[in-house]
Structures are given as C-alpha cells and as structure tokens.
Design brief:
- It is a single chain.
- The protein has 6 helices and 10 strands.
- Helix 5 runs parallel beside helix 6.
- It is of the alpha+beta class and about 240 residues long.
- Strand 3 and strand 4 form a beta hairpin.
- Strands 5-4-3-2-1-6-7-8-9-10 form a 10-stranded antiparallel beta sheet.
C-alpha cells in the first residue's frame, strides 16, 4: 500500500482496521503532556509488525490523527454532526484495554508450585490492602460522573515492555502508579507507588509490594475492576 493510498482512506476504515489482537505492547493514555490546560487528549498505541497509533485531541474542536511507525498518516477534523467517530474511538479504546486484560488469562489459571499456608495468609492481607486502596481510587473516579470540570489523567501500559522485555501491566491514575509483573515462574508481583504531593515517577520505593502465588485471580480481579472504571470514565463524549 502506498503512502498516498493510506492518506486517502476514510477515517472510519482506519478506526476499524486498528486491531490490538496480536500486539506485543499496548498503551492507552488520557491527558498526558497537555500543552494547554483547556485541551483534552486521548492516545492509543499498539506494537505489532509496525507501530500503529491514534491520537484524539479536543481544544475548541475535535481532531483525530492516525500514525504508523510514529509518522503522521492521516489527520481529520471531527464535526459534531458525526458522533459515530467518537463511538469508533471509544471502541478502539475498549478493545485495546480488553486485549491487555485478557492476554493474561492462561497465566492467572496456571498454579504456582511450592505455595504454602504462609503465602496464603500474606496474600489475604495483600488482597485486603489492594481492595481498600483501589476502592479509594474508584470512589475518586466516581466524582467524574457529576464533575465535567475534572480532568482524567491516567495511562495503561501492557505487554512485553519494549526495552526490558518484561511482561507487565502498568496503571497510572491520580497519585498511584501500579505495576503487575507476570513472571516466568507464574508468580504475579504487585508493586504500588504513591506519588502523592510529588511528581509522577518521583517516588522510588513502593508503598506496597507482594509476590502472589495462590490468589492471583482474586488480586487480578481487583485490578480489572479499576481498569474498567478508568476506561468508562475516559470515554469520549
């Protein structure tokens, strides 16, 4: 396909051709690196044989850009008379997140050898901590339903991290930076950093850290609930 043929494609087709399945790395972000506080920004990126990404911006008007291998391939202003473009962008957001979460299904169901009663007791306490901390985050997200002035700043990264090759799910929302590492021995490592009162990434020591062997599905279910809530709040309306 030539560059000029790609430029001529209907944006609807470009949305429908954005398929996260088969990607090794995925990212979704909301309102990162805003140059103008009145701007809103949604970005998607998947790594397959090529890097494909979509950027939707809003600053008085809506505009969507499609990139391939980080090069701008198509740009389109979105008039209010075409709400189907918002629906297509939301579909891409949700399908990317769905792929991120479901790609770990087999990992979660694979038992870890050598788990002990002490592991279970430690993980029970860890589950309680996760439920309490993410519950606070969920209640903060609930405020967005009646507060259009609030700006969601969040990001979800998943897959094999391009530099380290580690299999990870990372969630950034408000002051929390959550890492889920899926290790080759089928243990799940959770590390949570609290950047409260500091810039994102400033805290170097995790507030919470635990290796999960027995209760992987229960712990991961709490992560899934949070991600789904972020995705819902982050829809383009």
């Amino acid at each position: 396909m030539s560059f000029f043929n790609f430029i001529g494609k209907d944006p609807r087709d470009l949305f429908l051709n954005f398929i996260p399945e088969g990607s090794t790395w995925r990212s979704v972000s909301w309102n990162y690196d805003l140059k103008d506080p009145s701007e809103r920004l949604w970005t998607l990126e998947v790594h397959k044989k090529e890097i494909e990404s979509i950027e939707w911006s809003r600053n008085g008007r809506d505009e969507v850009k499609f990139f391939k291998n980080l090069k701008l391939m198509r740009k389109r202003r979105i008039p209010e008379s075409h709400p189907e473009f918002k629906q297509l962008m939301n579909l891409c957001l949700h399908s990317t997140i769905k792929q991120s979460l479901e790609s770990q299904h087999e990992f979660l169901l694979t038992p870890v050898s050598g788990a002990t009663t002490i592991d279970y007791q430690n993980e029970t306490r860890a589950l309680q901590w996760i439920q309490a901390s993410l519950g606070t985050l969920m209640r903060a997200l609930d405020q967005f339903e009646n507060r259009p002035d609030l700006i969601l700043t969040a990001a979800i990264f998943s897959g094999k991290e391009p530099n380290s090759e580690q299999n990870v799910l990372r969630i950034i929302a408000f002051n929390l930076d959550i890492f889920c590492y899926f290790h080759s021995d089928f243990t799940l490592q959770i590390a949570v950093f609290d950047d409260k009162n500091l810039g994102q990434g400033e805290v170097k020591t995790p507030t919470f850290q635990q290796i999960i062997k027995v209760t992987k599905p229960q712990i991961y279910d709490e992560i899934v609930k949070l991600v789904h809530r972020i995705a819902k709040v982050g829809e383009i309306s």
